[in-house]
Amino acid sequence: MSQVAIAPARTLGTIDDKVFGGFVEHLGRCIYGGLYEEGSPLADERGFRQDVLALLRELRLGVLRWPGGNFVSNYHWADGIGPRPERPRRPELAWGGEEPNTFGTDEFLAYCAELGPEPDSVAPYIALNMGTGTLAEALAWVEYCNSARDTYWAARRRANGRDEPYGVRYWALGNEMYGEWQVGMMTAEEYVREAGRWARAIRLLDPQAKLVACGETGLTDWDPVVIDGLAGLVDYYSIHIYTGSDDYWTNVLQPHQAERAIRTTAALLDRAAYRQGLPRTPAIAYDEWNVWYRTMPEDTGRGDLAERYAFDDALAVATYLNIFIRNCARVRMANLAQLVNAIAPVVTTANAAAVQPIYYPFLLHARAALDAAADVHVDGPVVSPELPPGASRWPHRIADLGPFALVDAAASVSADRGRIAVTLVNRSPDEADDVRLVLRDFVFAGPAAVTTLTADGGRPAHLGAPSPVPGLSPAHLAESTVPGHGSVLTLTVPPKSFTVIEAPVAASP
Asked: Which tens digit of pLDDT belongs to each residue from 361-420?
């Protein structure tokens, strides 16, 4: 049995809806043949696949990052505006293809608006080209999107059919500029000099812009140099960590490396803010994360990254999201990479769209999350598995973070402390757990709604018809109601499951 103690009055921070963010890159079939497919009977007159749009709307994304990723370091945004027949076709250097430029800035921003109709449009987040791009090009892009003046690029936007500024707030100063795979790779010192110039200039053009510095993992020599150099100029510092392995325990536990990266990055940011006397500390944007290990570009000779997910991967994704909730005071944005076809929860054929198991923990988390994270402590069975060396493509070492609770937990509460949502991941491969939820200084004020996601049993979780894509793993949902007794609620969570508990609560008399 595991006991999960929850203190609704002791909050860890507010939860920003941008923690439930996504990322779409010009990679494989993510854009073309994914969310956008001109001429398809499933697309509208703009080329937006309506079946894909409907599935992504369900995720209630808070922010959407585009156009890369590695792609952005050779992307010249002005190629992708204006009449489509006049847009040039360019070689694509990151993934070895060709870019037709039919999906560009105006299409992306229209897509963000479609994902969440006004006034709840999904916030757009654009990465700037610091590989082959120039500062003048970046400033022109900001002007095109955000200027209300009678200037050249604002006039071009109006001529292209958009009178009002788009108001894009989030801008990344490049992508993974530390990597040898990146066009225009820089040293940390070079990046600080260049990104500092760009940040100062963008702020002069648009003081409302929120700038994101390019970080690595918080654990490398790059990070302290860049944080010390840019902490006073940016609003966010990004980190990227992917995980995944054919070994079960490595796969479901490796996301805890993200927790280490968040702690380390936060400490470096705190150190820089203190030493420099900064009035505020940049937040963390965990703007690329996912389980990714089966399909790499070198395996296929092409950059499609068409990963096929199993249910174990859904448990890892659920754990990532628990981690972001627990660390919401520092992580103010997180972007699942990617959303369609390439290492994605949604996949398409020419005739239909379907979802993979990793879709559901994101869906359930985003629906359940309330205003603030509550302090949670798990007391129960733990595991310290042997993690085979070389079991993962990724070099993360996590054994020292153990032992790990078999049940991983996070909780959130409403601003008025009248509701609570608890998310539980039972990582035991073969044992159910009788979990006892115990509220501190609060009681359950009514029955709890319980939703449990498993690989089998219950009703199929597919939204709509069964999957039209061969080889997709199934996932199943079970829904129930469980009464609370005073401050205690007890339920059984199946092995290899993700469970969401939502209930009204009240302060103890």
From this structure: 999 999 999 999 999 999 999 999 888 888 898 999 999 999 999 999 999 999 999 999
List the end-to-end C-alpha distance of the chain, in Å, as a whole number.
28
Q: How confident is the model over 86-124, as pLDDT tens digits? A: 999 999 999 988 999 999 999 999 999 999 866 678 999
Angstrom distance (rounded) from CA 9 to CA 317: 27
Give Cβ neighbours of residue 326 (< 8 Å, ≥ 6 apart). Answer: 12, 259, 373, 376, 410
Alpha-carbon radius of gyration of the chain: 23
What CATH number does domain 63-346 carry, 3.40.50.300, 3.40.630.30, 3.20.20.80, 3.20.20.70? 3.20.20.80
Known catalytic residues? 176, 288
- Measured CA to CA, the distance from residue 149 to residue 441 in angstroms comes to 55
3-state DSSP of 359-385: HHHHHHHHHHCCCEEEEEEEECCEECC
Average pLDDT score, the chain: 94
Residue 287's pLDDT is 97
